[in-house]
Amino acid sequence: MPKNRYQRRELTHNWEEIRPLLKDSAQITYEIIRPVVLFGVSPKERAEETGMSKSAIYYKANLFDASGMASLLPPTPPPAIPKQDRRTLPPPIRQAIVDVHAEYPSLSLHEIASICYVQFGRKPSPHTIKYILATGPSPSRPTRRYKRFSEIDDPVERRRTILKLHAEGWTAKNIAGYLETSRQTVHTTLRRWAEEQFAGLPNKSHARIGLRKVDVKVVQEVKKLSENPELGAYRVSAALEQMGIKLSRATCGRLLALNRDLYHLKLPRRSARFKANMPFRAERRHQFWSVDIRYLDMHRLGGGEIYCISILENFSRAILASAISRRQDTEAFLSVLYSAIRTYGVPEVLVSDSGGVFLSHDARRIYNALGIAKQEIKKGKPYQNYIEAAFGVQRRMADWSFEKAQAWEDLLAAHEKWLRDYNFQKHMAHEERDDDCHSPAAVLNWVKGVQPKPELIYRAFSAIGETRVLNKAGYARFRNFLLYGEQGLAGQETLVNIFQETLTLEYEESPLSKYSVEWQPDDKHLLRVGNPRLYAHPYQLPQLPLWEPAEVQWHVILRCEPKSPRRKRVVRSFIIQLPLSFEELTG
């Protein structure tokens, strides 16, 4: 090495001065990651100095930690395969080619290549297969592996043989030719395996399942009944059942059509269907809402009657709110109405029948407060209420699930499933729409009615309030509980509003406190009260507290013993007899 080949330079760490001196790519990579590996310089700082991305520096530094200097060198290329070895197939593949051709000579070169690909993952060319068949090894199997299809006695073994050959890459045509059976048999076996797996291997009976009820006697009875042109399939089925013959309505319909066509009997006269007048047909969303209560008479689940209260939007036929309840009173109806209005706004008109719960004073007060017009259908014409059609759909879709419910939770789950399926499945009323909206939910979309303020909705739905007088400490006694209202209003009369599971103490339209309540099974007594919330209001006591909040434990909810029933005051009457006079004594 010449002495003056390398010139002496000043030591530097400036990348701009080092970079021109580097020529090899491995040396450049090493100089970039060296401060990171040796001195702990962050990749972010090194990326700003060198211009290489931070992620690349991270990656190359990790490779260097794992493999050392070898990570800087390019990977070693695999050794080149000699040209003469590229066309050489491994001995197992060569032997398989010879054996499969000897077993079934009708296989073409392309079919043998496909079999090799299935078994070994390598597909030789037809020229290679032809060369191996001419110069390859001798067959290792002098006889065939499987018997012919007709020679196999076990039907399960027959179909298993077809599956084995198919798994080796044989086509249905070659399998049928090798086993000397029809292609339809091979296709049927493969299709049954795909559908039923191992259950499709044994034979199956082709006999009819069930009893054959239609005989000559039945046909004659149907012929007699079909002479009356007014009888339909349902009436014929009922008449046969009265005779002790049970046939389905569909079977009776087929026999009726056969007899009337064969003997040229009169067909039943169909009266023109009367198109009912629907006065509450909506032309826009949230123009009409329909509400009604349906009695679920399939069971009681260990309690009283069970009802379904639902509200429907007439234009889209969507169920806006629905609930399963053991009561059909005003409070249960208002709870469902509150849920619908809170989610979808206020309708223009609410339609119902003349039920008392829909026309009560509390309900009318809510209608007037929210600007809802109330209308009733005509008596004796329930079809005018659109919710009746939805209840008919509910009978077909959900009554079977309602009847299977073993607990109240099962009934609620079945109701939730029906509500979801009804709103999101296509509806017959929307079949002819051309906007691709065929379900009630799609037709309703995001459109909502008039949106009142939440405070107005809550105040309108507040139930009939009970009044209580606050004691000296500011508590109101309600159903065996002392609930704090405001000490500054001691002796004042407050309003107790209860709606669903929320209890609020109010004074002159200002909320004082709110609590969550849980009712006992009788829906009259409280089981527990919790989640207290005290509001800021203008009636707070101006006096400063005597103790700091951390020095004393303050309970805003106190449970008290129920009051003993008052004993009726018994008024005893005394009869005072005046003394008799002398004349009365002597007569």
Description of the molecule:
The strands form 3 sheets. The chain has a 5-stranded mixed β-sheet, sandwiched between helices. The protein has a 5-stranded antiparallel β-sheet with strand order 6-9-10-11-12, with no helix packed on it. Strands 7-8-13 form a 3-stranded antiparallel β-sheet, with no helix packed on it. The chain has helices spanning 15-18, 25-39, 43-50, 54-67, 83-86, 91-103, 109-120, 126-135, 155-167, 172-179, 183-196, 216-226, 233-242, 249-262, 330-344, 361-370, 387-404, 408-424, 440-444, 454-461, 582-586; strands at residues 288-296, 306-313, 318-325, 349-352, 373-376, 466-469, 475-478, 481-484, 493-499, 502-507, 510-519, 526-534, 557-559. It folds into 5 domains: 15-72; 85-200, no CATH class; 216-262; 288-444, Ribonuclease H-like superfamily/Ribonuclease H (Nucleotidyltransferase, domain 5), CATH 3.30.420; 464-559, no CATH class. With 587 residues, it is of the alpha+beta class. Helix content is 39%, strand content 14%. The model has no long low-confidence stretch (mean pLDDT 80).
Quickly describe the structure:
With 587 residues, the protein is of the alpha+beta class.
What's the layout of helices and strands?
Blueprint: H1 15-18, H2 25-39, H3 43-50, H4 54-67, H5 83-86, H6 91-103, H7 109-120, H8 126-135, H9 155-167, H10 172-179, H11 183-196, H12 216-226, H13 233-242, H14 249-262, E1 288-296, E2 306-313, E3 318-325, H15 330-344, E4 349-352, H16 361-370, E5 373-376, H17 387-404, H18 408-424, H19 440-444, H20 454-461, E6 466-469, E7 475-478, E8 481-484, E9 493-499, E10 502-507, E11 510-519, E12 526-534, E13 557-559, H21 582-586
Parallel strand pairs: 1-4, 4-5
Antiparallel strand pairs: 1-2, 2-3, 6-9, 7-8, 8-13, 9-10, 10-11, 11-12
Helix pairs in contact: 2-4, 3-4, 6-7, 7-8, 10-11, 12-14, 13-14, 16-20, 17-18
